[in-house]
Design a protein that fits this description.
Elements: H1 2-16, H2 20-75, H3 79-100, H4 110-129, H5 164-181, H6 189-209, H7 214-233, H8 237-242, H9 255-260
Helix pairs in contact: 1-2, 1-4, 2-3, 2-4, 2-7, 4-7, 5-6, 5-7
Length: 261
């Protein structure tokens, strides 16, 4: 897959006659627009539907709990047996409700399952093309990258000398993490731990991005920046209505103010 991706990137560069900095940005934007953006929209629709089903699910759960309590008491079952039976039927009821409404929660993981491997694939391909992979150490497959940078990064084969691009990587990643954290009204302990871990990784990414060729850090920055724009747009009520995302109680009318606070 890495070799095939390299061939595709080189073919796009040759066909478009764009410099490598523009090729990297263009490919990133096209991939995010055609692949991850539709998945993100679908994910937001699914999350909204699941949230709207919560009152119904809560009423059904209470009714099930009452019914099971009466039946277990009549049958002389213990509390442990009641809990086991109730939880089993509750899971089945929840599954049937979500399936009936076309809201399989597993579909929410489609975005990271596709986005992360794609990000890794492009990153490894660029690493190989710049001669920084272990199998091709000091063997640059695209020497023209040395002169097809832009602005303060004319050489894409060396790290960004100003560290501006690595800083952009960290800031954009951290912004994405904070925007995702805003979705959770009452995060669990696990979610808080994961959020803090991702925050630390964002800081680590700045240091890591400052050590890799600019071709790689540029891709990371553009991808993360696209993610910020995507997340901001998907928080706007007007945009959400245009995309067919249902209105939910947790939807904020002032997403920018929430992010700033």
């Amino acid at each position: 897959p890495i070799y095939a991706t390299q061939q595709v990137l080189e073919a796009i560069h040759t066909w478009t006659h764009l410099p490598w900095w523009a090729t990297i940005i263009g490919v990133t934007v096209v991939l995010r627009t055609c692949i991850t953006l539709p998945l993100a929209i679908r994910q937001n629709k699914l999350v909204a539907k699941i949230e709207l089903l919560q009152p119904t699910l809560q009423m059904m759960t209470e009714a099930l709990k009452h019914r099971e309590a009466v039946e277990c008491k009549r049958a002389g079952k213990t509390v442990e047996e009641f809990e086991k039976r109730f939880k089993k039927k509750q899971r089945r009821m929840m599954y049937e409700l979500y399936q009936g409404e076309g809201c399989n929660p597993i579909k929410m993981f489609l975005l990271p399952w596709i986005q992360l491997p794609l990000w890794i694939l492009i990153s490894l391909s660029l690493r190989s093309m710049t001669g920084t992979s272990y199998s091709q150490r000091n063997s640059v497959l695209c020497p023209e990258m040395a002169s097809e940078g832009a602005l303060w990064f004319p050489d894409l084969l060396v790290p960004d000398p100003t560290i501006m691009i690595p800083l952009a990587v960290g800031i954009c990643n951290l912004t994405n993490i904070e925007m995702h954290a805003l979705r959770r009204q009452q995060p669990s302990r696990f979610q808080r731990v994961m959020t803090n871990t991702l925050r630390l990784l964002s800081v680590f990414m700045v240091m890591f991005a400052s050590q890799v060729p600019t071709a790689m850090s540029l891709y990371w920055a553009v991808s993360a920046g696209f993610g910020v724009c995507q997340n901001v747009c998907l928080k706007l009520p007007t945009v959400r209505r245009q995309l067919g995302i249902p209105k939910t109680p947790s939807e904020s009318k002032t997403p920018f103010r929430d992010l700033r606070n």
